[in-house]
Amino acid sequence: MAESAACSAFQLGRPRYDQTSFLGRLRHFVDIIDPSTLFVSEKKLKECIKLLDDYKHGTLPPGVSADQLWEAQKIKQAIIHPDTGEKIFMPFRMSGYVPFGTPIVNIWCFILCAFFQWLNQSHNACVNYANRNATKPTPTSKFLQGYVGAVTSAVSIAVGLNMLIQKANKLSPSTRMIIQRFVPFPAVASANICNVALMRHNELSEGIDVLDHTGSVVGSSKIAARHAIMETAFTRVVLPMPIFVLPPIIMSYIERLRFLQRNRRFLLPIHSLVCLVTFGLSLPVAISLFPQMSQVQYVLPLWRPDGSQSSWDEIHIKYTPLSTHSPAGFELKTTFKAKHRDMQLNQSSIVFFFFFFFRQIEVSRLEPEIAMATDCRLLTYNKGL
Questions:
Q1: E strands, the chain, in order
Q2: Is residue 325 domain-resident?
Q3: Which of 47, 86, 125, 310 has its Cα between 20 and 30 A from that of 94?
């Protein structure tokens, strides 16, 4: 592939920043949710796609810098779905989540009624669906079923919360304070979990594509789909935390200012600004908890498919140690062989060794047919956002 020397740092289809660290993922997703990409014209988008295609086919014109390529890829990733190749509707892009969601959240903070809960959860449902793993097509009927189920369950939880708070007026002041402060978050978090699970339930039944190191599809995995949805649901639990905590604390101090006490009409605009900033900060932090392209480290079986026994050198385990001072990845086989060079291992001793370390090592396993279909030890799948 003919590539200019200036573009040697650019990697097509790969994130600009290290995805194994939280800071790297945070910098990556700050690019993805950049609201300025909402104003990219159709002409500019086509130019970015063409530039990336030229790079891919080795026909890149001279004078193109790596920064230009990174910017083109950023714009494409923010607007185009990685699985379908189609544009995501502007309000449902991750870059549109904060600008379009803040007005709803701001009103919802003041009015806990069914209509605004429906509006909020409808927006959440569409964002969840638009940013799902779309390697398998979803029929319109399943989308509608998921939407009705997600919004109905989420709104029911939220409205039930409102009724609980209203009934809390009959309780003692201390009990009422506990309910009003601590019940809203678990209720909204539960609603968000239901929303994600029901809007993406098709992935659980159909599975999602798992890729090898070349980008080729190895198979369809329901286990990977379950992991993807669980991770996404967890981010939706973390996302509202700052929104529930920070604005009330900040506004409690701002409202004491003499200027605002004399000019109460400025309270709503200031509250909207506080919600906007809080939402804008919490979104990249929440979705950065996990990489979008998740990796599955597979432990090769003790016996190969042809019946021959696998050697210990073929066993490769990746784990995250408890100590933050240790490396994030580690080949257990290297340390083990260094300490036990002359040790003869049989099948029972290996099984015991695995059993002993399973309590400390997190190993992800996919369906056996996927493991049999590839020799690649590191598989990836699009988790969605």
A1: 208-211, 217-221, 293-297, 378-382
A2: yes
A3: 47
